[in-house]
Batch of 2 targets.
Target 1
Amino acid sequence: MEIADLILTAKDERNIKSRKSDISVYRIILFLTTAFTLLLRYLFVKENPEAFDPLSIRLVLSSGLILILVLSFIWKYRDKIAYLNYLVIFSYSIYILFLIRRNYFATNYLLEFILLIVIICLAFQNRLHLKIYLACIFIAFFISAFLYLDSYLDIFVKTSLIGIFCVAIVTFFNSRFEIEKRLEIRENLLNTIFNESPDAMLIADPSSSIILNCNERAISIFKIQDRRDLIGNNLNFLLKYPNSTGAWNNLKKKVDKNRFLVQELEFKTVFGQTFWGSEAITEIQVGTKAYWLVRISDITERVKDKKTIEESRKILNQIIDLVPHPIFLKDNEGRFVIVNKTVADRYEVVPEEMVGKKDSDFIDPILSVELLKDDREVIENAREKFIPEESLTFLDRNYTYQTIKIPFYFEDATKPGVLSISIDITDLKEAEKAIRESESKYKMLMEQASDGIYLTDKSGNILSVNAKACEMFGYTDQEFQKLNVRSLVDLKSVKEELIFALFNNEPVITELVCKRKDNSEFTVELSATRLDGGLLQGIIRDITARKKLEKILQDNEKKFRALIENSSDIIMILNEDFKISYVSVSVARILGHTYISLVGKTIFDLFDHEGIDKISKFLSETIACPGQNQTAEELKILTRNGSSKIVEIVAVNLLSDPVIQGIVLNCHDITKRKNTENELINTNFELDSFVYKASHDLKAPLRSVMGLIKLAKLESKDSTQHMYLDMMSKSVNSLDTFIKDLTTFSRNTRLDIEANIIDFSIVLEESLNNLKYMEHAEKIRINKSVDINVNFYSDLTRLSTIVNNLISNAIKYHRFENNIPYINISIKTDYEKAEIVVEDNGSGIDPLHINKIFDMFYRASENSYGSGLGLYIVKNAVKKLGGSIDVSSELDEGSSFKVVIPNLVNDIN
Amino acid sequence: MKEVQVNSVMLVDDNDTDNFIHKRVIELTGFAKNIIVKNSGKSALEFLESNKSNLDVLPDLIFLDINMPIVDGFVFLFEYENFPDPVKDKCKIVILSSSDSKRDIDRIVDNEYVINFITKPLSEEALDDLKTIL
């Protein structure tokens, strides 16, 4: 047997186990076969009784064999019984030989033979045994053949038995020897392994954990002088953190279960130094006793290395995560190995998610083909690649990168991976573009600017100018180059602020006067800025025109202000909350309030309870009609001392006007006018009463006189007296008519129009009724034509006056000599007007007088016995009603008066 | 046209001249048999008050002037409203005024006991018209 086998045997416990179990199977078969054979023999050999009872011997042997086999199943004695096995086989062989010698060997030979074969097969478990056996058989065969010369079968059987016998002996000794030898080798080997092992080896008692033995390495590892210093100590003695009892028990359980345990612990030397060690505990069974083989290897370096690697990997990851540029490492399959945060952000994942995956796991595989073109190129060519500018799109976002990709060789890989480092130059590119654009814009601006731009050095010498500046000053570009700014400026106009700002290097905007090439002057606005390097940039704008405009504007404003402030009206601007945002100073004069006291207050503070209702209604109307003037008449506005003034307010909503942004109110003080009006009304009323009273008092005695005349006429028969009385009556009537006219006139002037529905038939009828007692009235034929289609509204009293007067005139001034007198009266109405025509064939009016007939107290006829007020009253009444009157007349032919009066139907509504 | 005979009339006017004229005209035309003359609204009301149960003494017609001191025509008519119905049924009122003011006429005619409005002076024609109304 080889040493390697031994080591293998020693090493592989499980191997040994399996062999043992094989042997057990053999034994069972052996047992069964033996038992079967013995049974058969017992049945068949019985009929051969002998003095020497072989049966009993056989029984003894058989029983012994069975006993051994039974015992062999008991675990503890298995190994020792193995030797008994051989003894049994040997004894049995002797017995059979004995049988043969005694010629008891008969029909049962066959059975015996079978038994032997089986035994042989089982006993000889290795080839060496078989070889020895066969050799013995041969030798025995030949010896038997020559010595006994029995039958061949006999010889065969005998030799076989002898062979078995020899094999048994050889085997016995051989195996003994071999075991010893094997043990020796094993021990040496184990000792060597034990002592020379690079690891510390300890043997300990599992129950007490006392160290029983240790090797050289253990001495050196634990820095002790002699192994006796270690032996006898507890295993805990070696640990930096000794195990508690509970921990020990756990450990023991684990070892018992698996018979093997590896753990990494911190150990300490006798000097207290600590180190990391890997502890492997193996339970070994030596006979009935179990031991722990504890192997400790110093792994401090390994642990340290591992930690260092882990740490540096962590640092590396953190560093590359911090880099704001995409960095990644892919293997040759395109799988990410290292990815930094920037790369992961592009896919909106964390770096850990990406490791081991491909780009195609995150985006459309078709897109990724294009994306990975460069990576593949680097992998295929194994050459680095620099991409100065590439535009990539990840998840709809564009990036511009400058990228370097280098091949990266992984261990045990034929093709390199790719390490890619990109710099995000999106911003840079955009900035570059912006700079380029702004440069060109600047140039364009400079040239096309409507302002003059120049650049000077520190001492004011002009370096460059733009086209506009040339145009402004009248110098050419070349001429400018030789000039100093001082020669372009009227130094007297330079303000202190400019000098101060230039001195302090601050930008400034100032106004000054410049001189052109032809020495004419113009006002400019200069914006001067000190640039880097002491250069001075100036932007000049010709503001001559603006100055003029400003002046005009200022003058205009002054004018308007004067107009507003000296106006007798109050002008106010209200914001949308009706708060006063502006009020003209005239408010102080008119209301006594000051500007300060009013601004910020609401307009409602200027009105009493009743006035607030009116003004708020008015203002809401104003707001409803933006831009339109609204008028509110007669509002009482409170003065400072609590009295009130009557104002007329004109308001316009200019809230949407960008300049005014308010409601403009113009309050016109009409207090005086109103007072005068009231006085006038009172006066009129008084006058009317006076006229009424006076006319009555004048009329009353007159009527008495008329009554007396009538009475006198009734009671007297004297014709002369009658004549006097008639003349008296005529005079009195004349005076009565005059008084009546005066009253009517007074009424018409002063009383307001009172519109009512008019029935012209009644008006005409009443009028004719009144006039029927006039002189000669009965001689005149009256033709009436009344054509009324619509409701007509007018002032009844005045209309009656007009109709009365016209008809009475027509009667009064008629002729009765050569014609048939008539009066045609025609009245027509429609929706807009009424037309009244009174026509006669009377005496007519002399053209000399026709223009004056409507004058007061004018009497056109010598025959006239009227007051001269009649037509004057008619004209005034017509005028009051808003109508017109026309007359056409021919002397001695007749007259026609045409009156048109408007329908006042709208006044009613 | 039927001829109506008025039994008695009362003239109420502060102006004695007018009262005289009107009395004479009525006498001369034979318009009424009895003529009672009162020269103030007050005395006229007193007369009516004292005779309100004696219907025979009361006039059939009262000619009333408007413009009088203290109790004028309007006040008279206001007080007249308070007389019992038999009195008011018997005595019809005719306004006899020098005013021809529309305002006055409108005010008066609204009263249900006023049957006519005559402008002074009282004439035969006016009395004839009056007869047709009665």
Target 2
Amino acid sequence: MTAPRAFLPWLIAVPVAIGSIGLLFQLLGGLVPSFFFAWGYYFEVLIAGLLQGVMYSLVALGFVLIFKASSIFNFAQGSMALFAALTMVGFMEMGVWWPFAFIISAGVMVLVAVVIERVVLRPLVNQDHIILFMATIGIFYILDGLGQMLWGSDVKVLDIGIPRDPMFALGAIFEGGILINQYDFVAALTGGVLVAVLAVFFQYTRTGRALRAVADDHQAALSVGIPLKTIWVIVWSVAGIVALVAGIIWGGKAGVQFSLALIALKALPVLILGGFTSIPGAIIGGLIIGAGEQVAEVFLGHFVGGAIQDWFAYMLALVFLVFRPQGLFGERIIERV
Amino acid sequence: MLYREAGQFKTDYAADQAIFPILQDRIFLGLFLLLALVAVPLLANEYWLSTILIPFLVFSLAAIGLNLLTGYCGQLSLGTGGFMACGAFFAFKLATAFPDLHIAVVFLLAGVGTAGVGILFGIPSLRIKGFYLAVATLAAQFFLVWVFNKFPWWVNYSSSGVISAPAREIVPGFFITGTQASPVTKYVFLLVFVAILALVAKNLVRGKMGRSWMAIRDMDIAAEIVGIRPLHAKLSAFAISSFFIGIAGALWAFIYTGSVEALAFQIDRSFQVLFMIIIGGLGSILGSFLGAAFIVLLPIFLNNTMLAVDPSISTAIVSHIEFMIFGALIILFLIVEPHGLARLWQITKEKLRLWPFPY
């Protein structure tokens, strides 16, 4: 799946990019009086953005998993996150200890995956991509309605005991240190662990190998005896569990509510930046979008009236696409007539 | 029995290329238009006109626009809401800056402006396609809504951020916008306007331009090799599609709702129009109308049925169930007939030609 990549260029390019953007801002700060800039503050914003980016990556990861295995652009990923988080909160409100609630919710997500495969995907095999895409929008509506009907549509608090106090780091280098939100930090760590587990799962288990085979070529995989339908159920289940984790982390931060379903929209630019078919792409794309968005909002936003977060990521991805249509790590697009 | 083309001979090229080559089709369409133009305004009440027929016509136009781009040229777009907002706000600025300009001209100019914006956001389509392009058009959606929401110049510095359509007459004495406008005049104007634009769209897709779009849709590299310029074909599809969608946005703001804010053109609107063309049928002008009718009527129908079954049911539950049924119906539809209502209509016509004989 993933050829060994050259890490050296990244090791050089990333600090250079971060540094040059910082220098550019410093220059701007000298020219424009209303422009506030300090290196410590810049890094603080950057780190906050990167931590936020990990969460985008988590959502994007679910998309990539499904897209790789079945070339379905699953718009329902966001509502799967909402549904999973709602289920978890629902069980916790019944007094279930959160690890058990997590396991039950994961089971529910597997059930959802089985139902989706049976009822939606199987009859739609071999249809156009756009038809499957619309079908996932249908799933989006059903999950949204179902989740809110079962568990109510109020904003719910999801607390699994992650510390929320801010902490300071690197006080020796920058004046006053850098403020890091502990919750974001723990969330990013969880995301990292999840990605590592998934990587091991894909690389070293029998099922993982089958998944990769299906992702490479459906027909070939089918012809060597890999059961496509089982694989789809597994992929949707894994994506459901990823959605559960994403839902817990996002829900814990901002409360479990309808807007959670819309985080999917935040993950889309991450996807086009990283490439629809690449797991490392989803992660690095998430980091770039998260950091870029935060830095742009804080330092440039007030020049154009603020709230540029809504579209900045899309514009970034759009400009990027014009130069590299397959995304950072996407497969090379080869066209044949 | 009645629907049979035996004995209808084509003796010249004009007859051969007619939009409706079969006599019965022409009679049916003529009767239908007569019904819509004369009987409906006389019989329909205000509720029917302003909550069903007017939005239906506005949405039909938007669906035609998106269908030109997605159904005929194969460029998936999720920016419809943004382009509708463009049309609405361009029309508002034009109508307030030039009060003497005729309202129909305002709508058309708003469409032209939106076409320009459409070309701008269509440029990435030259490099990317499929879902990458769909996500790229979301940039248009979010950016445009943000622009209209953020800069008060667009709403003439009104504090509420809402634009209200100024009162304008289509012909002296007949207001189609503003508070004095009666639903009947609005409806008649919309019907004529949309019918003319639909005719334009139908002829576009039958002509050279439409053929080049379809070639690009079916296989862009092959089209390029036989001499179709992707730059021209794709950007013209974006421009003309945006022109229609922009006019639909202007009509939405001026005639359907009367006053509107930028947030009315959120991404839901884009999906709504996309549903219309998928359910109606991709690559079909008739399908745009059928899809619009289906999507406009479905929520009203579901709502009324549920309230009729159990009047005590709470509105929150109704909206949740409505969501679920809506989603389920869409999936069901895609499974049963992925080519949409237009295809069903075609099948019906083919069956009708043979009826009552088996072959």
